[in-house]
Structures
1.
Amino acid sequence: MPDHVTGGLAGLLTAVVIGVALRSYLAKPKLPHGVRLPPGPTSLPILGSALAIDVNAPWVTYQAWGSQYGDLVYTKLFGLDNIVINSERIARDLLENRSQNYSDRPEIATNELFGVDNTTAFMPYNSRWRLHRKILHQSFRQDVVPDFRPMQVAKTHELLLNLLEDPSGYLKHLEVHAGSIIMSAVYSYDAARRNDHMIERASLALEVILQEMRPEVAAIFSAFPSLLRLPSWLPGMRLKRAAPFAKQLALENSEKPFAHTERGLATGTISSCMVADHLLKLDESDGDSAWQKKALQDSAQTATAAGTETTAGVELNFILAMILHPDIQEKAHKLIESVIGTKRLPTFQDRSSLPYIDAILREILRWRPMFPLAIMHAAVESDVYEGYYIPKGATITPNVWAMCHNEEKYPNPSEFNPDRFLNADGTLTDDTVDVVWGFGRRICPGRHLAEASVWFAIVHLLAIFKFSNAKDESGKKIEIKPRWEGGVTVRPAPFPCSITPRSAGMDITALQHLIKLSD
């Protein structure tokens, strides 16, 4: 490499480091009298506490800090203020009771690079975000969700058929199930049971974005945005090499399904859905109609991505948990059989008679939360909480993992135990583990639809299939060593498993007969 290029890069890196060091020194918060920052680990110059964090599971590091310093922890990460909340009580006090000050998002430099800067989940707390939120709440509020049940039933039946025909493709089938439900609810798009192009492109976009936009990587580029000016061929700049393809996928997954719904409205071939219903309300003579239409398109894309990732991930955790705990699986199956029998499939009307299935669902959500650190909030203004100073602009990180693994609330938290959500008389407790859906004004607006979709899926999976360890060529059981991977969201790494019908006579014809009886 020419010397002037090498020198230029070295000079740029040096300037960045010096600039951040000065910023970190000069921007030390001036604390009001009588307050102090929350306690936390020792910070190194520039890096802060970054080297002390397990980048593969930062929530575990934060939980350990909570044991040492308390439920509110202050740390510096690359010169930026970060407040970690390890307690559900404090999370509710700040993010819900003071939501006006804690509903913002930190600025993430890589969002625009990947084409997700218009995503509702990452959007700053402003009028644009409030419009997104209004659209999503109107579309997925609790009293509206039952309208989606016929579609959820049909898509779950397709999942059963896919697993019966091709059990080895279980991961892809779960993603198709999750994606087809949310794309039907959002766009009135009826995805094919297999090899649907639009579902495959949406899944690919999620895979690329979630793999590359890991929190630790985003934190570095947010602290040093000048690094984004470096050429993509440099070591460590893989993110820039992946970004163009990710941005192309994001644009495609925003425009194509939206255009599908618009065409359907024009020809009268579309049924009620989030996009169609809001397009019909748009007043083209209104000067804000273009802005509102763009907000609808962006919030629709957000709902699709979030709904696909969370639903598929929770269902994957369910299958893993059933293999690891065959006694729980068999207990659940026997309960389903005692209530429903073997001559029909479960319905939503059976839910109240099957509290143990809800207990399993809650334990899955608690045991391995999909968003162990939620999505970070940011403080709009400086605040004081219980004598501790929270600087303006600080990143607020709710450690959902620590809340779900609180030993006082959940004894032996690493153990998978659905009974913790049942009273002595077998009824469900009041604990719905709602922390996994977020907090305050940033709580997931699609949680009611997602929760219903997962419940309906797992009760059918337990009714029809047995999940067990795969066997090798000699017939020996292959032990699973569970491993979870991801970034913003975390799901199990692919694992070998056996998915077989519980009934010896359960073939495609028999399953189709049961499905027909359910119609």
2.
Amino acid sequence: MGTPQRRILSLLCSAALALPAAAPLSASAEWVHIGYMGDLNNDQELNMADLVIMKRHLLGIEPLTDSNSYHVQSSFIGIHGADGFQADEYFVTADINQDGAVDVFDFVELRQAIVNDSPLWVWQWETGYIVSDDPLEKYGEFIGASVNDVYKFMPSQGTGRMLIIYADFADCNFKYLPSTKVIEEIAFGEEDTGSRLYPWESISAFFKRSSKGALELSGRAYHYSTQRSVNSYNGVPGQKALLTEACRALDSEIDFSDFDGNNDGYIDTITLIVPGQASSDTWWPASVQFADNTYSYDGMKIGHMITGNCQINSSSDYRDFVSTLSHETGHCMGLPDYYRYNSSEDADGLHGTAGSELMDDTGGDLSCVSKLHLGWYRNDQVKIYDASAGTQSFTLYNAQSSDGNTVIIPCGKLDSRYHSEYMMIEYTTKDANNSAPPWYVSIGEGIRIYHVEASLYNNGWWTSFRYASGSEFTDNYAGRRFIRLIDDEKKDNIYKTRDIINGNITGFHWYDSKGRQTIETNLTIEIGEKKNNSYTITIKNNNGN
């Protein structure tokens, strides 16, 4: 994927563009009430005294001050009767409709709230995790996809549709220009185990194997050439300008409604590929929420767009095209990055022989953590350890096969939608999607264990994973993170027969209140025999149960 600095720049640009409509916070949490909107005298009530203060301010008699406008700064504020929102700076209580100004409209709303005795806006601090007690809706024989709770557009189950636009510039052309038929075969072709590039023979084949057939990805490709220079399209605004220009030009050729696999009114994703020599400052591969509903084609709005200079080099050299777009498609389905954005020397989030993951380094298959949230396990393939039941044994099957399964160890109560803290265990191999890693990835075979913190966060515009890479809540990656490896070091950290995992292993602990892994699990995991392409593991409760 290239240098961490370029990755970071691309992601920051992506974040700057994303301003979608507010998504509902479908979750529950513990809250502490701290005040009402419009409570200008800070007496924890709304009454005529507050209205008088507001009126005197509007008449210029006595302007509001910090004390009676009750500024507050918070990482998250929830509002009773409305969606949550992010307060990046001081927040003015008197600005009741939150339009950035205290004016007569706020006065009218305050008066109505007082007369009707209906204080709709209540400040609350978040004190618990955002989790839900609503069970996931299953998808046929597969579990439900918990990524459906985050803001995204491409389905991870059923049919996903991708529109590829292969675009060049007046002064920046492809050295090798594949036909649209060749592009479509490389992107959406059937599985070919005899391909020299297997398992990267196509994006569709990679995901079909990884998902056990839960996801069928298909699409079409089109060429577009602009008469303007490459320097006319800089940054995310330039990416967006080129995309909309191409869509307008191709409108007569494309039925955009063909690319809405989940029928949500949004194109699942549009992929915009430019020549490899196009500046990486603008065209380093990235997935962006387009987030501008003023653009519509055949009644379809644009959901995600993938942009990048990861061109197809020849009819037999396209591994980077497939692996890179597979990673970016993972974002379109709702997964975050697993690498760290703040490191110039070592951006990887997962290390050692257990550390291969498509969302970390594009070097292999998706892990059990990714597959759980994408809904790529059949109903009987997710096993939950129950500490109250004492010692329990489980059989883990090859994660790169259709029989691949996982064991979850909850930290307390496991949220029914998997938005909580837990450990996950799988038996990973060098088969199928792990069979041809890049030179910089060393894949091991055996048992690997993850520490997951998949709580959600709603900032008032969209819902995401609270502890994803780049989040302000990870304490610069020293605290809680969406995904960690147990014994996460640059070594052979795959477990095999007779290995024992307990409190002596780095990372085999729960998070404390400061986000550090210090709380004992009081569990021991023993790795048993490998038989018939499977491993047995035994989990013991050290408290004597």
